[in-house]
Amino acid sequence: MNKSGTALVLRSDSDGVSTLTLNRPEALNALSPLLFEELRSHLDELAGSPDTVGVVVLNGEGRSFSAGNDLKAIERGEHASSPYQQAETLDLIEAIPQPVIASVSGHCYTGALELVLACDLLICADDARFCDTHGKWGMVPTWGMTSRLPERVGPLVARDMMYSGRVVEGQEAVEIGLANRCVPVDELPDATDAWAVLMVGNSWHTLREEKRQMKRLAEFGRDEGLKWAREKGPGPATDMVQRIKEGFNR
After folding, report:
1. In degrees rounded to 5, what are phi and psi of residue 104?
2. Which of 42, 88, 202, 246 is the most exposed place for a label (fewest CB within 10 A)?
């Protein structure tokens, strides 16, 4: 919480969807060490709640998702509670069972870009602005940028974004594979909700296993991965037959 006792990350749950909202709108949701502490706490709870939460949404309060690292906190010498706390929090987003949707409007710079790259999916508004400013400030990525950005958009586009520090707008983000969809800014909340509801209506067992397999198989060679998937998977959900029956009766 900040000095006034306000939570820096809000959580709201509805019908199997949990929404985490970065809540420092007066600072464009800059990523302070304290904000990361709260985000990590929520993610730890979600990791232990796969049977009550099927999908997670991550967004920002106000006119920007996040302007990135809190440079004022860095200047003041504020530090995280452990040396790799921020990077490990991003790793946890990848590791929790539920698919995580990043919903982005306005700024999404540097550390915030690293944050959304750890999410499974990304929907943005047409006013979204993605940018890597590590080079501008003389910083070096330590939260996974140099792995996750090339994985998402390919090495050539990643080098362009990282080396130049140029701004990528919402529609271009879709074109280069950084985002799944771009919608008008006033439609972003409803579009995000509808997408999450569509996913949470599917088998949570399947969603969890698809996420787990994609992460695990990325660690294998192709042939090894294909063999693992067919031999080591958990099998279908316990309600598969019921879902098939209901599908035929619609």
Report:
1. -120, 125
2. 246
What does pTM read for this prediction?
A: 0.89
Number of Cα atoms under 13 Å in the Cβ half of residue 129: 14
The whole domain housing 231 covers: 204-248
Instruction: Clarify whether residues 166 and 121 are in a common domain.
Output: yes
The reply to whether 53 and 101 lie within a common domain is yes
Residue 36: name the closest of 95, 107, 85, 101 by CA: 85
Same domain, 54 and 159: yes
Q: Are residues 145 and 35 in the same domain?
A: yes
Six-digit token pair at 162? 């990282």
Encode pLDDT of 206-215 as tens digits: 999 999 999 9
pLDDT for position 26: 96
Pairing of strands 55-60, 121-125: unpaired
Q: Given this model, what pLDDT does residue 2 score?
A: 63
pLDDT at 80: 76
pLDDT in tens, 147-190: 999 999 999 999 999 999 999 999 999 999 999 999 999 999 99
φ, ψ dihedrals at 150, nearest 5° = -60, -35
Q: Choose one of 169, 185, 200: the last residue of a domain.
A: 200
Query: Looking at the 3D structure of the chain, how many domains does it have?
Result: 2
In 3D, which of 136, 133, 129, 89 has the Cα closest to residue 108?
129
Note whether 153 and 43 are same-domain residues. yes
Distance from C-alpha of 169 to C-alpha of 130, rounded to nearest angstrom: 6
